[in-house]
Amino acid sequence: MLHFVKYDLMMPTWGAILGFLFIIPLFYAVMFPLFFIFVSCVLAITVGLFYSDQREKSKLYMSSLPVNRVSIVRGRYVSILMVSICFVLYQSIWGRILSLTLENNYYVYSWKNMLVLLCIAILIEVVAIPIYYGLSSFIMATGNLAFLFFLSIIFILPPLTNVLGMEYEIIFNDLDPGFVLLVEKYIPFQPYVTVSLVTATLFYLSLKLSELLFVKKAKVS
After folding, report:
1. Burial of 203 (0-12, 13-18, 19+ CB in 10 A)
2. In whole angstroms, what is the distance from residue 8 CA to residue 46 CA?
3. Which of 30, 61, 109, 214 is a Cys-bridge partner for 92, taking CB atoms 3.0 to 4.6 Å apart?
């Protein structure tokens, strides 16, 4: 599995890596919503990896080799999770740097924010990876993922603005604190333990589903 994790981590080009390293602090500096930056980066990495699979037929080639096909799927889950952790830490570091060097009131991550963002990243994996392994068309899978993404925004905005007291206007740059407040509002007992356990369970179930879908697709191919 470690071989496939390494393969996925080496797949993005240096241009893409430098782009992420530049875009994150730039958007942070102009006080763009941190949640949107993070989710966009995780989605971009996820879609980019499957686009590379589609373009190079790499996963089909590897599945034809005498290797454990389950390890290919597990490597994909672990690699995206590792990149997501790096994104969270990178954003947190830049938040502290900018809050100390500039006068603007930059939002700095607490451990609660970091945990919630990581859970969101895992939920993106939980939904996105089975879609790509289940559908043969990359375009159709990406279209479904985009539809679910915009649908989730529509559903999350009302409770998010409500918990922040934005009854008359929505200030997108001030939405970031609301995610922690939502978790604490709707999960009153041990919210962070509960959300971690639920997310871990969904991660495991999604992993098993993706393993079945990928093995089935590899046999058909």
Report:
1. middle
2. 10
3. 109
pTM of the predicted model, to two decimals?
A: 0.86
Among all chains, which residue has been given the structure tokens 């939002």?
A: 107
How do the pLDDT tens digits run along the chain, 221 residues long? 666 676 666 666 556 777 778 887 887 777 677 788 888 889 998 998 898 878 766 555 555 555 677 888 998 999 999 999 998 998 888 888 877 777 666 677 888 989 999 999 999 999 999 999 999 889 999 999 999 999 998 998 888 888 888 877 777 667 788 889 999 999 988 999 999 999 999 999 999 999 999 888 766 55
What is the distance between the alpha carbons of residues 212 and 194, in angstroms, rounded to a whole number?
A: 28
d(CA 82, CA 59) in angstroms, rounded, equals 20
Please check whether residue 79 is in contact with residue 9, taking contact to mean a CB–CB distance below 8 angstroms.
yes
